[in-house]
Amino acid sequence: MTHPKSYARMADTAAGIIDRENFSCERVYADELEKLFTRAWLFIGHESQIPNPGDFFVSRMGAESVILCRDRRKKIHVLLNSCRHRGMKVCRYDEGNTVNFTCSYHAWSYATDGALVGVPMEKALYEGLDKSQWSLIEVAQMTNYKGTIWATWDPEAPPFLGYLGDAREHLDLVLDCRDGREGGSEVFGGVQKWIIPSNWKLSAENFCGDTYHNPSHQSVDIVGLGASPAKGVKGRHDNELADAQHLWISFPGGHGIHSAMKPSNSAYIPSFGDQKIIEDYFRHCHEERLARLGEKARLRPFVGTIFPNASFNGRIPRSLIVWHPHGPTSTEVWRFYLIDKDAPAEVRTFLRRYYMRYSGPAGMTEQDDMENWTYATTGSMGTIAKRYPFNYQQSLNKAREGDPVPGLVSTQITEENARGFYRGWSGYMTDRNWSEIYAAGDRA
Ligand code: FES
Ligand SMILES: [Fe+2]
Fold first, then answer.
1. Which ligand neighbours the alpha carbon of 209 most closely?
2. CA–centroid distance, residue 348 to ligand 2 (Å)
3. Given the CA of residue 103, which atom of ligand 1 is nearest to it?
4. What is the pLDDT at residue 221?
5. Buried/exposed code over 347-359 (b: 16+ C-beta within 10 A; e: otherwise)
6. Listed residue (180, 171, 161, 145) closest to 298, CA to CA
7. Buried/exposed code over 375-407 (b: 16+ C-beta within 10 A; e: otherwise)
8. What pLDDT does residue 8 have?
9. What are the residue ranges in the chain where pLDDT is below 50?
10. Atom number of ligand 1 nearest to Cα 106
11. What ligand is nearest to the CA atom of residue 102?
């Protein structure tokens, strides 16, 4: 049953008006699971988490559990973590290695490619059971993009690169090595997972490029929790973008990216105070990158959201973040930290400590954001509050197409990316076909 109000009206992106019920209503949430999370490409995990045959990592698509695993022939699969007999989870661990998944209820067992291979008392109790028809359910499409695994349940969905469109070069900036070599990143440490009492879209749209929310992090800046304690109050990340033109770019399909363009041949800007090894490493990366990529080295990442719920921090703390829908007012957050495979040990240690100081349930900066999203969700639930929509009118009609990079580009702080996110959202929620969703990405 869809919501009695029309979704196009609940997300009036041309006027910059979004209904509060989008952030708290059970029916909206149910429709998102049905109409959006069954169709969009979703981030599942990273190949570095499953290097060997039999390795698995339990992930999620929407609200459902899936298993990312590598079969005996090293092929990667994404399988619904639900037994075909009565639905029990066939894998109850977060990650590990196995020969097969044996259901703990009645012990049907499945190979790591999803095939049903064992049914207790099969001959005695079943007549001609065709096991090939009862494999674990596998996603319709799966891709490995520079080590990151993405999947969709929709066989009609455009291929992943088509789905990304021009957002691709910004995702590349996150996945490629700091010195400009292609790919080469891996997931570093465990995946942080926690639940926040807020709607998933508030976080996803924030990462589309909500630069306006900087005041939220004032206390972190004042305390000096930046990458270098010696630097004092500034530098929550590093100084790399100090000489850059910030760009907010909205893409068809709902992706929103905040990147920045540095001047040609810009010199390295020191960021790490007296920590010489770290400084030398990042200086080296900067210079190598410039030599390798030339003018292309100017574009630098900051944050972004690949629609619907995979966001990233592109620099420090470099990570992929998934906002798993967990209920209309609950989000399960997963943060995957990334690092170049060949980064030196000192750099790994430094970044690991900084990542924890910044992000995750105990990270100072992330706590600021979580508090905002939690109260914004509560503020979307009140009987009176719900009668009044949110304002998304910042820098309305100021973005320009394709200048200086492909996409709908703003050079001033804007909510264009958030409006673009809801244009994408509304396309799925109103059952548009793929070309309509992508055409609607151009304008409301
Ligand atoms: S539910 Fe899995 S074997 Fe019965
Ligand atoms: Fe923030």
1. 2
2. 23
3. 2
4. 81
5. beebbeebbbbbb
6. 180
7. ebbeebbeeeebeebbebebbeeebeeeeeeeb
8. 87
9. 232-233, 441-444
10. 3
11. 1
Per-residue model confidence as pLDDT tens digits over 70-80: 999 999 999 99
- Ligand 1: residues with CB < 6 A are 83, 85-86, 88, 103, 105-108
pLDDT attached to residue 231 = 52
Cα 323 to ligand 1 centre (Å): 30
Atom of ligand 1 nearest to the CA of 86: 1
Residue 1: predicted pLDDT: 62
**Residue of 302, 167, 159 lying closest to 237 (CA atoms):** 302
pLDDT the model gives residue 341: 95
| CA 370 to ligand 2 centroid distance, Å | 8
Confidence at residue 18, expressed as pLDDT on a 0 to 100 scale: 98
Question: What is the per-residue pLDDT for 233?
Answer: 43
- Residue 190: CB partners within 8 Å, gap ≥ 6? none
